[in-house]
Amino acid sequence: MSSSFSVTLPTFVRRERASFTAKLLAPPIALIVTIVLNLGLYIAMGRDPAAVIYAMLIEPFFSWASFSEVLLKTGPLLLIAQGLAIGFRAKVFNIGAEGQFIVGAIFASAIPIWMPQATGQWIWPAMLLLGTIGGALWASLTAFWRIRLNANEILVSLMLSFVAAQLLNYLLLGPWKDPNGFNFPQSVMFQYDAMVPILFEGTRVNVSLILAAGLSIAAWIFMQKSFAGYKLQVGGLAPRAASYAGFKESWAIWLSLMIGGAAAGLAGAAEVAGPLGQLQRSISTGYGYAAIIVAYLGGLNPIGIVISSIVMAALYIGGDNAMVSANLPIAAVRVFQGSLLLIYLIAVAFVRYRIAWRPMSARSLS
């Protein structure tokens, strides 16, 4: 005998309009939940959770020396994240900013490596310009394969990052290796005029922070006030409507990837011309991947990205502090960063969707 009955199952229903307050609360709530969850991890590892949280989240703001290092890390994170966010809002997912960052550093390093005796205030601006061009050219490879062969830009850009890392290894182990560097894989030290100016005496904070602030203002104007930015947003939100209106998808892909690549390349150039002062394999520090977290944690909004970049920079410095003072492994620091992005994305899902209980009929045999 068969019988039918109804069951009530939860489903996600998109909200007609997401709450502005909920959007603002999503990042801090995600941070709080991340802290609570990771506290359990630290306890399971046998670490003092209070010492870890103090080192990671409080100590970076405790002194000017520590906070200046936070500002130093904020520069590249903010530059890359603002560039990526423009593409993300257009649904063009550039995951290869790390490779574009490396290539930008390589292009910028060509001047002091090939002309070590050159002098003049033109050197560091030329390095930044070359780095910007290098990052954009590297991103253009992804755009080309996306347009011509419909290759997935996520995979292409990500794979090109590994190619860029190997190119860096080749140069530092071969033609660009410092002959007096005791066999270390690094270039010669750059001359004084190849170094970007310092903003605050006694710190390592340089003009890259001003460049990042300028790019943030430009990104806001571009996305909120320009017709080109409007076309990118429409293309991301409603591709069919954008196509009907005459907006070309290929144009959006090229523009998004070139902007993201140029920003990442500029950040790479500022890194070698700033705190490093030479081209090293350690230039690949994960800024390109961390900037993805920064972009989404900031809600893909230029103003929100400024705040999230400071938070992520503080986690970088705090993570180093925790490894020293609380004996925390680097893997735990990366787990904190990754879980922060995951929990934020979950929070955003509840901002955009609500749970609705819908009855569904089912049939059983007895």
Task: List key phrases describing it.
globular, mainly alpha, 366 residues, two-stranded antiparallel ribbon
If you had to describe this structure to a student in words, what would you say it looks like?
With 366 residues, the chain is mainly α. The protein has a domain at 74-297. It contains 13 helices and two strands. The protein has helices at 20-44, 49-58, 64-89, 97-114, 123-149, 153-173, 208-225, 227-237, 239-244, 249-276, 287-297, 302-325, 330-352; strands spanning 2-14, 353-365. Strands 1-2 form a two-stranded antiparallel ribbon. Helix 3 (64-89) packs across helix 11 and helix 3 crosses helix 12. The model has no long low-confidence stretch (mean pLDDT 88).
What distance lies between the first and last C-alpha atoms, to the nearest angstrom? 6 Å
What is the helix/strand order?
EHHHHHHHHHHHHHE
What percent of the residues sit in helical stretches (DSSP H or I)? 55-70%
The largest beta-sheet arranges its strands as 1-2
Summarize the structure.
This protein is mainly α and 366 residues long. It has a domain at 74-297. It is built from 13 helices and 2 strands, in the order E-H-H-H-H-H-H-H-H-H-H-H-H-H-E.
Topology:
Blueprint: E1 2-14, H1 20-44, H2 49-58, H3 64-89, H4 97-114, H5 123-149, H6 153-173, H7 208-225, H8 227-237, H9 239-244, H10 249-276, H11 287-297, H12 302-325, H13 330-352, E2 353-365
Organism: Rhizobium tropici
InterPro entries: ABC_transp_permease
GO molecular function: transmembrane transporter activity
